[in-house]
Amino acid sequence: MTNTSEKTRTNYTVPLITITLLFFMWGFITCMNDILIPYLKKIFALSFIEAMLVQFCFFGAYFIGSLAYFVISYYKGDPINKIGYKAGIISGIILSAIGCALFYPAATFSVYGLFLGALFVLGLGFTILQITANAYVSLLGPEDSASSRLNMTQAFNAFGTTIAPVLGGHLIFEFFADADGSISAEATRIPYLIFAVILLLVAVLIYNVKLPSFQAEETETKGLGALKFPQLRLGVLGIFCYVGGEVAVGSFIISFLEQDSIMGLSESVSKNYLALYWGGAMIGRFLGAISLNHGISATKKAVYMVVAATLVFLLIFSIVNLDFSQISFFIGFIVLNFVAFMIGKSAPARTLSVFASINVMLLLSAIFNSGELAMYSILGIGIFNSIMFSNIYTLGISGLGKYTSQGSSLLVMAILGGALVPLIQGAIADSEIGVQKSFIVPVFCYLYILYFGIYCSRKLKNVAVGQNVSGH
């Protein structure tokens, strides 16, 4: 049994590396939305709610796409099971590349509606990847190491979201900007064409790499039987709140730091701090991958977590255009993250509750304070977002049996939160309440996640973290 397991791991190394590259690009392009929002807001003189249509169209595509997939699966059978994971992943990449290529006519004609259409197509492509790639990674090896594989691939997804504000921001705000330094829609043409070409190259690579084929037995589950499980019903709203809260905070960070009462920073500087927000998620996911590994002793686990945190922090420091004095505050959040993991004791519901409560406190601090304290508070939220999606997902589908696939598709639909919550916050930011106080919206999101964690810690026992874990 052991030899077979070792052989399986060896044979899956190349496919896993290939899919990890896809996760990186996926995260990079998704995070580019946070750069586009303030950029397009200035070009088209948009209100906050109009600018948040960027996230509405992108994440709304997740809902439309997953709903269509659910309906097709219900009446015709699982499409991915019919065409295979490899074909499904490649089709998702190609559709995403088309979405990136559509930025060229949108930028050429400088029409906001065309940008939104391109983002919708891009979101549909990522929806297919969401449905296929995460599940595929869980199959690339023994079931007992699925958690480790998924957390590692998602950590590289977070690596993409970390460097996107810096590299993507440089491309749009500086490298491809007008010679006189003014901004125009045309600065997005070449960067997104480059993204389209890279995605197509990844598709070609995946096509030529020998990927193992998996096919599941289809079980008929007529009706919405999954909804009879309370943990799934609550988990769907939990995913809605988590993705909504995470995206809303990331979408407003640059505008938040531009406020004179906070830091009064320019976009070119703010994008480096935005990288810290997403970099925190990367640190937390690497730490989570180690913390969730029950095959090593507590002492070794602590050592590995310290080493991993140090290396990833140094990596982030080498990426962002900030000196050590500007980034050193983040060490305190890493230490707090360690403490939170110890309090959570690797129990999914308990850890979720601890992380959610910390984010509520950080948001309240950002709302009621000013200057560096408010900035530090908002940037620290990312590291405590890290394990939320996986824990909510795991708890939501626990005990569903034959309804697991159906429940999973319903959880993916709940990514709709990334479309609606930023829109709600945008409407509040446009009012006399303003940008800073608008962060009360994600406060309610994390309060619900706190409730969900408490509920599951009382109702669900012995749920193993890492089973059927998926990332956003």
From TrEMBL:
GO terms for cellular component: plasma membrane. It is found in: Cell inner membrane. The chain crosses the membrane at residues 12-37, 43-71, 83-106, 112-137, 158-177, 189-211, 232-254, 274-290, 302-320, 326-344, 351-368, 374-396, 408-427, 439-457. Residues 15-461 form the Major facilitator superfamily (MFS) profile domain. InterPro entries: MFS, MFS_dom, MFS_trans_sf, MFS_TsgA-like. Keywords: Cell membrane, Membrane, Transmembrane, Transmembrane helix. GO terms for molecular function: transmembrane transporter activity. PANTHER family: L-FUCOSE-PROTON SYMPORTER, PROTEIN TSGA. This is MFS transporter. It comes from Flavobacterium kingsejongi.
